[in-house]
Design brief:
Layout: H1 14-40, E1 50-54, H2 63-76, E2 81-85, E3 96-97, H3 105-108, H4 110-115, E4 121-123, H5 127-136, E5 141-145, E6 157-163, H6 183-188, E7 192-196, E8 218-225, E9 233-238, H7 243-252, E10 256-262, H8 271-284, E11 287-291, H9 292-295, E12 307-309, E13 311-315, H10 318-331
Parallel strand pairs: 1-5, 1-6, 2-4, 2-5, 6-7, 7-8, 9-10, 9-11, 11-12
Antiparallel strand pairs: 3-4, 8-13
Family: Belongs to the LpxK family.
Catalytic activity: a lipid A disaccharide + ATP = a lipid IVA + ADP + H(+)
Pathway: Glycolipid biosynthesis; lipid IV(A) biosynthesis; lipid IV(A) from (3R)-3-hydroxytetradecanoyl-[acyl-carrier-protein] and UDP-N-acetyl-alpha-D-glucosamine: step 6/6
């Protein structure tokens, strides 16, 4: 789905405020159901520490690149990290270890395919079963991509990732807004917060993000290209949580964008989609380019026609993050 306009309307337009007010009772019911599930579930405790990288909103905040960065840090620290994902959008329920030779996005989802480039990745709709498989296959620590609101698996530590620009939106709960749960409830279960904000931009007002009184670490990170922007004219397209961030990033890195086309998050690209995009690119005398996450969802025969633009999460203070990870492993006896 594309986020409705009123999710980003911070009461500046009366129509958005009215829509949110009308939908707010549904949001309260959604939040109450989630809170009851968390309170009424006894989580499974894995034999290794579980670090969750989650968020409080629907849509893209950069969780998967952050998860990949943490996996890399843990590997460099001598651990044997495994990624764990629900495998959203894939047909397999798991638990199963992602294999690039046999699995595609239709099987396991796009995000697990990306994480499996960094560390072994398990997909499982049943998170405890996925954690058990990871342990059997040699995991010394698990990084769970998403799942902050899933109470079935015990989390030894949770990072909540928030987009510094979008924040919590208008502060209303789905469907009245993008929040999955009330901010204070979600932050209370977090061990630390990661604010995603481009390098050089001033950090947002922490009071606006309700982090000013949070007695927990607040880290800053951003997405940076891990390869140069291709030369020549580009026609960019993306089906991620916030496509405009991808387009803006390309421009900021010096990309010559002829046009930018948005698709819904996790969009399954058809040959028809690619034909229309190719025709449009030809009319602009431009090369097609998309995100890594979108690229793995393209039909196999189409991938060579489209450039992939890789990005990585970069931390303003990587040493503090490594110290945090070391403390987690020390507390759980895995250091």
């Amino acid at each position: 789905m594309r986020p409705p306009a009123f999710w980003n309307d911070k009461a500046g337009r009366s129509s958005g405020a009215v829509t949110r007010a009308l939908l707010s009772p549904l949001g309260w019911a959604y939040a109450a159901a989630g809170a009851a599930r968390i309170a009424g579930t006894t989580p499974f405790k894995a034999d290794v520490p579980v670090v969750c990288v989650g968020n409080l909103t629907l849509g893209g905040t950069g969780k998967t690149p952050v998860s990949a960065a943490l996996l890399t840090m843990l590997r460099d620290m001598g651990a044997s990290p495994f990624a764990l994902s629900r495998g959203w959008g894939g047909r397999l329920k798991g638990p199963v270890r992602v294999d690039h030779e046999t699995h595609g996005a239709d099987d396991v989802g796009d995000e697990p395919l990306l994480l499996a480039r960094t560390a072994p990745a398990i997909i499982s709709s049943d998170r405890p079963a996925g954690a058990q498989l990871a342990v059997r296959q040699g995991a010394s620590i698990i990084v769970m991509d998403d799942g902050h609101q899933n109470p079935t698996l015990h989390k030894d530590f949770s990072f909540v990732v928030v987009d510094g620009e979008a924040g919590w939106g208008p502060g209303t709960i789905f469907p009245a807004g993008p929040l999955r749960e009330p901010v204070r409830a979600g932050l209370a279960r977090a061990g630390a917060v990661i604010v995603m904000m481009p390098d050089g931009d001033a950090l947002p007002d922490l009071a606006r993000l309700q982090l000013d009184e949070l007695e927990k670490p607040v880290f800053r990170a951003w997405l940076a290209p891990s390869a140069p922007v291709p030369e020549g004219r580009l026609l960019a397209f993306a089906g991620i949580g916030r496509p405009q961030k991808f387009f803006d990033g390309l421009k900021a890195a010096g990309g010559d964008l002829a046009d930018a086309i948005q698709f819904p998050d996790h969009h399954r690209f058809s040959t028809g989609d690619l034909k229309r995009l190719a025709d449009l690119a030809e009319s602009w005398n431009a090369q097609l380019i998309t995100t890594e996450k979108d690229h793995v969802r393209l039909p196999a025969g189409m991938r060579e026609q489209v450039l992939s633009y890789p990005v990585q999460a970069v931390f303003a203070d990587a040493a503090r993050i490594r110290d945090c990870l070391a403390q987690i492993m020390a507390r759980t006896g895995t250091s």
